[in-house]
């Protein structure tokens, strides 16, 4: 078995407790004052100049550096921060992977991002698009009534290589930061020299405990990951029990439309019901699965691990059925990284189709059923097919690696592409060209809308539909076709397929 060194959840130093982020029921608005922007209940960690506060949802980490010692209201960027994340989670600097955030020169509310090259060495500011942001505030906070400097961040989880759906670990990262104040004058690194030595970076453990309205939870199976298994506000099944596909409301933290399921799935119990069952000593349950076509139920046997909070760190705890295929409900009062987890199971070996999952609880230790719930899920781990059928200059096919001269407008290229998902679970199609140093240009994009139903895509589509596509400049181009699946593991979208063809184009 491969060593999971990078997935261990440990406290790196004696008494160096991790910062535990708490779940953001609603996205935190970093543009609002900290006293009214949704920071209530945030995880908190003290450092010598103030506090670090953290919340997260399925997409973003919301972090605050609440620098209570910086009481001078300076308007320039002489006051600044650095914020570093160990993207490989190995407590070692990895060139062009680990990330540092800072301010753009002269712009105190514009977040810059760069990659580490080595100890105390970085790339220039990256130019690729980012949904991360920073807002500076000067005022009181929950930690001090005296006005002071506050840095509020919204960090995209994908930028720091964190996913809530990790099957083998609770999601975490390692981080460090610097805060600089001109008045009063101080420069504080947490931990010391973090930007040269990652071994003492502090651990930040993210939450994947959403507070789902009880009305949206299923009776026994509360949710599949973050996707509720009950009703929406219009009293409709969130997971359609005819199609097995899910649609959440647009305001929900994980918005999906007509989404199939795949990857490793977490079936999470209805918390109130789990507390009731456990309190009555009805802890014995069975999980069964029936395949497409209405076949007979078979016991769903799976082993998994969940992390239990000990008060100072997370300890790995293994779960498995007994020799007869029955599971025992964990104590709902114990703090796990995934509370009320009934079963975690991989679906990669299942053929696409509509499956029924059944969870049955029994009276005490007997074999007498107490209550059950059936949940239909459309499972599909196939990725869409992508084919660049042809690239033509006029009527002539242009082969890969060719050097082609393009005349004056309207001369150019046209393409035929295929993006097809026979199961009808296509989410988006993107066709673009990359060139030069980090440059790209979009040629075609089409995304899913509910009116498309179970969208299968298209075959041999002419792009553009009329006229020709012209390159922005003479250069070597890579034409990239990507099709993404409308499939979720309950925490994020999964599954995509890409293909590319390279040409050199010379404008005449």
Topology:
Elements: E1 19-20, E2 22-23, E3 43-47, E4 50-56, E5 60-67, E6 80-85, E7 99-104, E8 107-118, E9 121-122, E10 133-141, E11 144-156, E12 172-181, E13 186-190, E14 202-205, E15 221-224, E16 227-228, E17 260-261, E18 264-269, H1 271-279, E19 284-290, E20 298-299, E21 304-309, E22 314-319, E23 327-328, E24 341-346, E25 353-362, E26 369-379, E27 385-393, E28 396-397, E29 403-406, E30 413-420, E31 426-435, E32 439-447, E33 457-463, E34 475-488, E35 493-507
Parallel strand pairs: 1-14, 2-4, 17-34, 29-35
Antiparallel strand pairs: 3-4, 4-5, 5-11, 6-7, 6-12, 7-8, 8-9, 10-11, 12-13, 12-14, 15-16, 15-18, 18-24, 19-20, 19-23, 19-25, 21-22, 25-26, 27-28, 27-30, 30-33, 31-32, 31-34, 34-35
Mean of residue pLDDT values? 92
- Name the poorly predicted regions: 1-15
**Main sheet, how many strands, which sense, barrel?**
8 strands, mixed
| SS element count, helices | 1
The CATH architecture category of the largest domain equals Sandwich
Instruction: Name the shape in a single word.
Output: flat
How many β-strand runs? 35
**Helical percent range?**
under 10%
Return the CATH topology of the largest domain.
Immunoglobulin-like
Q: How much is the radius of gyration in Å?
A: 26 Å
Number of domains: 3
What percentage of amino acids are in beta strands?
over 45%
The top level CATH class name of the largest domain: Mainly Beta
Q: From the helix content, strand content and strand pairing, which structural class follows?
A: mainly beta
Between the first and last Cα atoms, what is the distance in angstroms? 58 Å
Give the quaternary arrangement of the chains: single chain
């Amino acid at each position: 078995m491969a060593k999971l060194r990078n997935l261990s959840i440990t406290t790196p130093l004696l008494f160096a407790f991790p910062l535990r982020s708490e779940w953001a029921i609603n996205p935190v608005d970093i543009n609002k004052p900290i006293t009214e922007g949704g920071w209530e209940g945030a995880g908190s960690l003290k450092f010598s100049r103030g506090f670090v506060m953290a919340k997260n949802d399925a997409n973003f980490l919301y972090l605050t550096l609440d620098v209570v010692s910086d009481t001078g209201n300076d308007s320039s960027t002489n006051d600044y921060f650095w914020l570093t994340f160990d993207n490989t989670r190995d407590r070692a600097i990895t060139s062009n992977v680990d990330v540092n955030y800072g301010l753009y020169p002269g712009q105190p509310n514009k977040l810059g991002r760069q990659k580490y090259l080595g100890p105390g060495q970085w790339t220039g500011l990256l130019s690729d698009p980012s949904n991360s942001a920073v807002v500076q505030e000067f005022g009181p906070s929950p930690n001090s009534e005296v006005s002071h400097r506050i840095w509020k961040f919204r960090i995209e989880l994908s930028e720091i290589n964190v996913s809530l759906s990790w099957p083998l670990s609770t999601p975490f990262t390692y981080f460090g930061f610097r805060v600089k104040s001109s008045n009063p004058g101080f420069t504080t690194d947490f931990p010391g020299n973090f930007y040269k030595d990652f071994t003492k970076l502090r651990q930040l453990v993210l939450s994947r405990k959403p507070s789902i309205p009880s009305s949206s939870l299923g009776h026994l199976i509360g949710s599949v990951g973050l996707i509720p298994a009950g009703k929406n506000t219009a009293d409709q099944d969130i997971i359609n029990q005819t199609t097995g596909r899910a649609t959440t409301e647009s305001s929900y933290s994980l918005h999906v439309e007509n989404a199939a399921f795949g990857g490793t799935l977490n079936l999470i119990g209805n918390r109130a019901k789990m507390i009731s069952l456990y309190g009555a000593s009805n802890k014995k349950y069975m999980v069964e699965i029936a395949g497409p076509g209405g076949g007979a139920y078979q016991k769903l046997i799976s082993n998994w691990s969940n992390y239990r909070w000990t008060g100072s760190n997370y300890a790995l705890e293994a779960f498995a059925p007994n020799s007869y295929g029955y599971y025992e409900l964990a104590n709902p009062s114990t703090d796990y990284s995934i509370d009320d987890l009934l079963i975690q199971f991989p679906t990669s070996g299942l053929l696409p189709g509509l499956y029924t999952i059944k969870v049955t609880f029994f009276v005490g230790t007997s074999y007498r059923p107490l209550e059950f719930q059936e949940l239909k899920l459309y499972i599909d781990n196939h990725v869409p097919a992508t084919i660049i059928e042809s690239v033509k200059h006029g009527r002539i096919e242009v082969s890969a690696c060719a050097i082609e001269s393009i005349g004056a407008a309207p001369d150019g290229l046209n393409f035929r592409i295929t993006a097809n998902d026979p199961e009808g679970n296509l989410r988006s199609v993107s066709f673009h060209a990359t060139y030069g140093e980090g440059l790209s240009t979009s040629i075609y994009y089409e995304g899913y809308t509910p009116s498309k139903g179970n969208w299968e895509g298209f075959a041999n589509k002419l792009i553009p539909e009329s006229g020709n596509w012209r390159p922005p400049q003479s250069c070597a181009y890579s034409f990239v076709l990507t099709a993404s699946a409308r499939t979720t593991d309950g925490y994020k979208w999964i599954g995509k397929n890409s293909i590319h063809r390279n040409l050199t184009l010379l404008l005449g």
